[in-house]
Write a sequence for this structure.
């Protein structure tokens, strides 16, 4: 739901505009002076501001310029009964999208607001497509039969409104699959919003998903829109959904059934049009059968399941992935991977999957000074032949290495491979969670990695 802030010192005008815009489906907030409007806009960014030129405490032009400093892309429509053509030109030069001369009728207002949002949507679409062209981050790389099957499923489900459950080990590329579904869907012009369900406490996650009202809990100094609101007309990607508490699972089930919810501490029912894509590295059906996940929620989520195989089961994709990651790097341009390196990469089991491979390729590109990266660039992993059991051993460089740097590097890799899940990262390194957190603090590593 689009949020509109009305800033006007005339009470009757605020009432008329709020009523008209609310009936048109907008979420409306009002302010009777420029200073209050600034405070409310900074507390929670609106999507559009209807701004009167003459107001106490801060006039419209000053507020326009201040808001543009904080939010350069914010849509602002000026309203004035006092202005001239020169005033309107000044407002447009300062960044206003349009202006309305009082008195105006409600139909003119609604058309102006709707056109402003159309322009914003087109701008967002252009920015989005630019990002896609530059990064190619959504592309699913790989020619194995397993990846061809995944691509086929993505293409089949993208054009439907079906809820998708993506299952696979950490680092297999679940978010890329979710992004590909969004990109190929009719919602491509809408937002793609990601939430890591494993990275937040229950209280914070509930607020993050559904938003909260001012004063809902200690520290809630202003109203905040949740990810469901931000993802309206787009896609919400719930990563590591198996980590949700039963309380949040129940609320999520209601949203999936009714597409409505209330902010934490609020009574207003909010309706959204959001496509849900969830991902997990757990077997949710087994979790449900063991009573650790709501069975009704599982069946709501798994309308269309997609399983991504681990990298060790599609080794033929490794050369394509490695070259793809190398070309993405600025310092990888003009470099290629030698056959000896590719042999060792394909022999390794990759417990961290595609994410781990990307990290290794980046390190090799940094270390190697040659156009063809040889085995000397493979400093982190010593892989054994494909016929033998693979292992990951640190190879001591001849020039020596810092043990502290090794420990710090492995801590960071564990956080990367598990998407910031502290418990899983600690387990991967054979540490207790307490010992793991101690080492994160020791090396100044953010414990809320990826949030």
């Amino acid at each position: 739901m689009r949020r509109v802030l009305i800033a006007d010192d005339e009470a009757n005008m605020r009432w008329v505009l709020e009523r008209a815009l609310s009936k048109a489906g907008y979420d409306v907030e009002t302010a009777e002076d420029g200073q209050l409007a600034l405070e409310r806009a900074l507390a929670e960014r609106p999507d559009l501001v209807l701004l009167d030129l003459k107001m106490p405490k801060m006039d419209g032009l000053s507020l326009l310029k201040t808001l543009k400093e904080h939010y350069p892309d914010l849509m602002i429509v000026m309203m004035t009964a006092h202005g001239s053509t020169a005033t309107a030109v000044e407002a447009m030069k300062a960044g206003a999208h349009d202006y309305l001369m009082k008195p105006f009728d409600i139909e003119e207002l609604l058309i102006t607001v709707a056109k402003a949002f159309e322009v914003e949507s087109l701008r967002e679409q252009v920015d989005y497509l630019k990002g896609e062209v530059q990064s190619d981050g959504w592309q699913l790389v790989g020619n194995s039969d397993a990846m061809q099957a995944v691509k086929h499923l993505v293409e089949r489900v993208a054009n439907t409104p079906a809820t998708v459950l993506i299952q696979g080990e950490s680092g297999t590329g679940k978010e890329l699959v979710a992004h590909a579904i969004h990109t190929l869907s009719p919602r491509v012009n809408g937002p793609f919003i990601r939430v890591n369900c494993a990275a937040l406490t229950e209280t914070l996650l509930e607020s993050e998903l559904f938003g909260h009202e001012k004063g809902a809990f200690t520290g809630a100094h202003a109203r905040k829109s949740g990810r469901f609101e931000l993802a309206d007309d787009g896609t919400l990607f719930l990563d590591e959904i198996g980590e949700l508490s039963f309380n949040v699972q129940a609320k999520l089930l209601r949203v999936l059934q009714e597409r409505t919810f209330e902010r934490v501490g609020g009574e207003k029912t909010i309706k959204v049009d959001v496509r849900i894509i969830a991902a997990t590295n757990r077997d949710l059906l087994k979790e449900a059968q063991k009573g650790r996940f709501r069975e009704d929620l599982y069946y709501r989520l798994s309308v269309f399941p997609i399983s991504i195989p681990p990298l060790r089961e599609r080794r033929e994709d490794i050369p394509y992935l490695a070259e793809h990651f190398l070309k993405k790097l600025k310092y990888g341009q003009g470099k290629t991977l030698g056959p000896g390196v590719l042999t060792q990469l394909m022999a390794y089991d990759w417990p961290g999957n595609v994410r781990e491979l990307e990290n290794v390729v980046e390190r090799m590109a940094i270390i190697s000074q040659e156009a063809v990266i040889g085995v000397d660039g493979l400093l982190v992993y010593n892989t054994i032949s494909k016929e033998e059991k693979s292992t990951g051993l640190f190879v001591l460089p001849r020039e020596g290495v810092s043990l502290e740097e090794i420990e710090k590097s492995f801590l960071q890799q564990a956080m990367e491979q598990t998407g910031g899940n502290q418990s899983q990262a600690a387990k991967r390194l054979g540490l207790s969670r307490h010992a793991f957190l101690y080492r994160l603090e020791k090396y100044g590593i953010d414990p809320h990695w990826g949030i």
Summary: Confidence is low (pLDDT under 50) at residues 128-138, 380-393.
